[in-house]
From TrEMBL:
One of its GO terms (molecular function) is monooxygenase activity. Its cofactor is heme. It comes from Hevea brasiliensis (Para rubber tree). SUPFAM superfamilies: Cytochrome P450 (SSF48264). This is Cytochrome P450.
Amino acid sequence: MDDAIAARKENPSDDLLSRFMKKRDVDGNLFPISVLQRIALNFVLAGRDTSSVALSWFFWLVMNNPEVEAKIVKEISTVLEETRGNDHQKWLEEPLDFDEADKLVYLKAALAETLRLYPSVPQDFKYVVADDVLPDGTFVPAGSTVTYSIYSDLSGEGLGLPANEIGGCSCAITLPIISGSRPPCAAEDVSYVVHEEWASCILATSHAGIGRVSARALVGGFTGCKGNI
Protein backbone atom coordinates (compact mmCIF):
# COMPACT_ATOMS: atom_id res chain seq x y z
CA MET A 1 0.00 0.00 0.00
CA ASP A 2 2.88 2.39 0.76
CA ASP A 3 4.25 1.73 -2.75
CA ALA A 4 0.84 2.45 -4.30
CA ILE A 5 0.55 5.75 -2.42
CA ALA A 6 4.12 6.74 -3.38
CA ALA A 7 3.43 5.89 -7.02
CA ARG A 8 0.34 8.11 -7.10
CA LYS A 9 2.26 10.97 -5.53
CA GLU A 10 4.73 10.77 -8.40
CA ASN A 11 2.09 10.21 -11.09
CA PRO A 12 -1.28 11.63 -10.01
CA SER A 13 -4.28 9.64 -11.21
CA ASP A 14 -8.05 9.93 -10.93
CA ASP A 15 -8.77 6.65 -9.16
CA LEU A 16 -10.29 6.37 -5.68
CA LEU A 17 -6.99 6.31 -3.82
CA SER A 18 -5.78 9.43 -5.61
CA ARG A 19 -9.04 11.21 -4.85
CA PHE A 20 -8.79 10.42 -1.15
CA MET A 21 -5.17 11.61 -1.21
CA LYS A 22 -6.52 15.02 -2.27
CA LYS A 23 -9.20 15.09 0.44
CA ARG A 24 -8.67 17.00 3.68
CA ASP A 25 -10.00 16.42 7.18
CA VAL A 26 -12.05 18.89 9.22
CA ASP A 27 -8.86 20.71 10.21
CA GLY A 28 -7.78 21.15 6.61
CA ASN A 29 -5.00 18.56 6.74
CA LEU A 30 -4.39 15.84 4.17
CA PHE A 31 -5.18 12.31 5.33
CA PRO A 32 -2.13 10.51 6.79
CA ILE A 33 -0.92 7.28 5.19
CA SER A 34 -2.43 5.18 8.00
CA VAL A 35 -5.90 6.56 7.23
CA LEU A 36 -5.45 6.08 3.49
CA GLN A 37 -4.49 2.46 4.09
CA ARG A 38 -7.67 1.80 6.09
CA ILE A 39 -9.82 3.58 3.48
CA ALA A 40 -8.34 1.53 0.62
CA LEU A 41 -8.73 -1.73 2.54
CA ASN A 42 -12.33 -0.89 3.37
CA PHE A 43 -13.19 -0.29 -0.28
CA VAL A 44 -11.47 -3.49 -1.39
CA LEU A 45 -13.25 -5.63 1.21
CA ALA A 46 -16.61 -3.87 1.54
CA GLY A 47 -17.08 -1.93 -1.68
CA ARG A 48 -16.78 -4.66 -4.28
CA ASP A 49 -19.85 -6.81 -3.69
CA THR A 50 -22.06 -3.97 -2.48
CA SER A 51 -21.31 -1.88 -5.57
CA SER A 52 -22.03 -4.75 -7.95
CA VAL A 53 -25.31 -5.54 -6.18
CA ALA A 54 -26.39 -1.89 -6.22
CA LEU A 55 -25.61 -1.47 -9.92
CA SER A 56 -27.35 -4.75 -10.79
CA TRP A 57 -30.56 -3.56 -9.15
CA PHE A 58 -30.13 -0.09 -10.68
CA PHE A 59 -29.98 -1.41 -14.24
CA TRP A 60 -32.84 -3.81 -13.58
CA LEU A 61 -35.00 -0.90 -12.43
CA VAL A 62 -33.87 1.30 -15.33
CA MET A 63 -34.58 -1.53 -17.77
CA ASN A 64 -38.14 -1.69 -16.48
CA ASN A 65 -38.62 2.09 -16.40
CA PRO A 66 -37.66 3.41 -19.87
CA GLU A 67 -38.97 6.88 -19.09
CA VAL A 68 -36.48 7.11 -16.21
CA GLU A 69 -33.72 5.80 -18.47
CA ALA A 70 -34.50 8.56 -20.99
CA LYS A 71 -34.28 11.26 -18.30
CA ILE A 72 -30.97 9.89 -16.99
CA VAL A 73 -29.47 9.71 -20.48
CA LYS A 74 -30.65 13.25 -21.25
CA GLU A 75 -29.03 14.53 -18.05
CA ILE A 76 -25.76 12.69 -18.75
CA SER A 77 -25.70 13.99 -22.33
CA THR A 78 -26.36 17.57 -21.22
CA VAL A 79 -23.59 17.52 -18.62
CA LEU A 80 -21.01 15.87 -20.89
CA GLU A 81 -21.79 18.23 -23.77
CA GLU A 82 -21.15 21.16 -21.42
CA THR A 83 -17.86 19.76 -20.10
CA ARG A 84 -16.48 17.74 -23.04
CA GLY A 85 -18.14 19.07 -26.17
CA ASN A 86 -20.18 17.29 -28.82
CA ASP A 87 -17.59 14.63 -29.69
CA HIS A 88 -19.16 11.52 -28.14
CA GLN A 89 -15.83 9.69 -28.20
CA LYS A 90 -14.43 12.19 -25.68
CA TRP A 91 -17.29 11.40 -23.33
CA LEU A 92 -15.81 7.95 -22.67
CA GLU A 93 -12.09 8.72 -22.66
CA GLU A 94 -11.95 9.65 -18.98
CA PRO A 95 -14.17 8.81 -15.99
CA LEU A 96 -16.38 11.46 -14.45
CA ASP A 97 -14.74 14.02 -12.23
CA PHE A 98 -16.38 15.27 -9.04
CA ASP A 99 -17.71 18.45 -10.67
CA GLU A 100 -19.44 16.47 -13.41
CA ALA A 101 -20.85 13.95 -10.93
CA ASP A 102 -22.26 16.77 -8.79
CA LYS A 103 -24.37 17.91 -11.74
CA LEU A 104 -25.99 14.49 -12.23
CA VAL A 105 -28.76 15.15 -9.72
CA TYR A 106 -31.39 12.91 -11.31
CA LEU A 107 -28.95 10.00 -11.68
CA LYS A 108 -27.92 10.30 -8.05
CA ALA A 109 -31.58 10.36 -7.01
CA ALA A 110 -32.20 7.19 -9.04
CA LEU A 111 -29.20 5.48 -7.42
CA ALA A 112 -30.36 6.56 -3.96
CA GLU A 113 -33.86 5.23 -4.66
CA THR A 114 -32.34 1.96 -5.86
CA LEU A 115 -30.47 1.60 -2.57
CA ARG A 116 -33.64 2.43 -0.65
CA LEU A 117 -35.69 -0.20 -2.46
CA TYR A 118 -32.93 -2.82 -2.61
CA PRO A 119 -30.16 -2.03 -0.08
CA SER A 120 -26.91 -3.85 -0.81
CA VAL A 121 -26.82 -5.01 2.81
CA PRO A 122 -30.50 -5.69 3.60
CA GLN A 123 -29.80 -6.97 7.11
CA ASP A 124 -26.94 -6.36 9.53
CA PHE A 125 -26.08 -7.05 13.15
CA LYS A 126 -23.99 -5.59 15.95
CA TYR A 127 -22.19 -7.47 18.70
CA VAL A 128 -22.52 -5.85 22.12
CA VAL A 129 -19.07 -5.43 23.68
CA ALA A 130 -20.29 -3.80 26.90
CA ASP A 131 -23.67 -3.24 28.56
CA ASP A 132 -25.49 -0.51 26.72
CA VAL A 133 -28.88 1.14 26.30
CA LEU A 134 -30.47 1.75 22.89
CA PRO A 135 -32.00 5.17 22.08
CA ASP A 136 -35.49 3.82 22.86
CA GLY A 137 -34.39 2.77 26.35
CA THR A 138 -33.92 -0.95 25.64
CA PHE A 139 -31.12 -2.46 27.71
CA VAL A 140 -28.70 -4.72 25.82
CA PRO A 141 -26.28 -6.79 27.89
CA ALA A 142 -22.67 -7.44 26.92
CA GLY A 143 -22.22 -10.53 24.79
CA SER A 144 -25.58 -10.26 23.07
CA THR A 145 -26.21 -9.64 19.37
CA VAL A 146 -28.61 -7.07 17.96
CA THR A 147 -29.90 -7.67 14.44
CA TYR A 148 -31.70 -5.02 12.43
CA SER A 149 -33.25 -4.94 8.97
CA ILE A 150 -32.11 -2.05 6.79
CA TYR A 151 -34.52 -3.23 4.09
CA SER A 152 -37.51 -2.92 6.43
CA ASP A 153 -36.41 0.51 7.64
CA LEU A 154 -35.97 1.95 4.15
CA SER A 155 -38.56 0.20 2.02
CA GLY A 156 -42.03 1.55 1.32
CA GLU A 157 -44.81 1.16 -1.19
CA GLY A 158 -45.81 3.33 -4.11
CA LEU A 159 -42.91 5.79 -4.08
CA GLY A 160 -41.70 4.94 -7.59
CA LEU A 161 -38.31 5.74 -9.12
CA PRO A 162 -36.80 8.09 -8.28
CA ALA A 163 -38.46 9.39 -5.13
CA ASN A 164 -37.01 12.90 -5.38
CA GLU A 165 -36.61 14.76 -8.67
CA ILE A 166 -35.90 18.15 -7.13
CA GLY A 167 -32.68 19.61 -8.49
CA GLY A 168 -29.99 20.14 -5.89
CA CYS A 169 -31.33 17.56 -3.42
CA SER A 170 -28.73 15.73 -1.35
CA CYS A 171 -30.45 12.40 -2.09
CA ALA A 172 -28.78 10.92 0.99
CA ILE A 173 -30.31 7.86 2.60
CA THR A 174 -30.97 8.09 6.33
CA LEU A 175 -29.35 5.09 7.97
CA PRO A 176 -30.77 3.44 11.09
CA ILE A 177 -29.42 5.06 14.24
CA ILE A 178 -28.29 1.69 15.56
CA SER A 179 -25.55 1.62 12.93
CA GLY A 180 -23.73 4.12 15.12
CA SER A 181 -23.25 7.01 12.73
CA ARG A 182 -23.56 8.07 9.14
CA PRO A 183 -20.64 7.17 6.85
CA PRO A 184 -17.82 9.72 6.50
CA CYS A 185 -18.75 12.30 3.87
CA ALA A 186 -15.69 11.53 1.73
CA ALA A 187 -16.51 7.83 1.61
CA GLU A 188 -20.17 8.49 0.81
CA ASP A 189 -19.29 11.01 -1.90
CA VAL A 190 -16.76 8.74 -3.58
CA SER A 191 -19.11 5.76 -3.34
CA TYR A 192 -21.77 7.71 -5.22
CA VAL A 193 -19.21 8.86 -7.79
CA VAL A 194 -18.16 5.24 -8.43
CA HIS A 195 -21.79 4.24 -9.07
CA GLU A 196 -22.39 7.32 -11.23
CA GLU A 197 -19.23 6.63 -13.27
CA TRP A 198 -20.28 3.09 -14.14
CA ALA A 199 -23.90 4.00 -14.77
CA SER A 200 -22.89 6.97 -16.95
CA CYS A 201 -20.28 4.98 -18.85
CA ILE A 202 -22.65 2.14 -19.69
CA LEU A 203 -25.64 4.33 -20.53
CA ALA A 204 -23.56 6.85 -22.49
CA THR A 205 -21.91 4.03 -24.45
CA SER A 206 -25.25 2.44 -25.28
CA HIS A 207 -26.80 5.71 -26.43
CA ALA A 208 -23.91 7.71 -27.92
CA GLY A 209 -23.21 5.38 -30.84
CA ILE A 210 -25.03 5.02 -34.13
CA GLY A 211 -28.54 3.90 -33.33
CA ARG A 212 -30.02 3.42 -29.89
CA VAL A 213 -29.28 0.45 -27.67
CA SER A 214 -31.58 0.01 -24.69
CA ALA A 215 -30.32 -0.90 -21.23
CA ARG A 216 -32.07 -4.22 -21.82
CA ALA A 217 -29.32 -5.14 -24.32
CA LEU A 218 -26.69 -4.70 -21.62
CA VAL A 219 -28.04 -7.45 -19.39
CA GLY A 220 -25.57 -10.30 -19.23
CA GLY A 221 -22.44 -8.21 -18.91
CA PHE A 222 -20.61 -5.21 -20.25
CA THR A 223 -16.83 -4.93 -20.56
CA GLY A 224 -16.34 -1.67 -22.43
CA CYS A 225 -15.89 0.60 -19.39
CA LYS A 226 -12.83 1.00 -17.25
CA GLY A 227 -13.48 1.09 -13.53
CA ASN A 228 -11.95 3.38 -10.93
CA ILE A 229 -12.38 1.03 -7.98
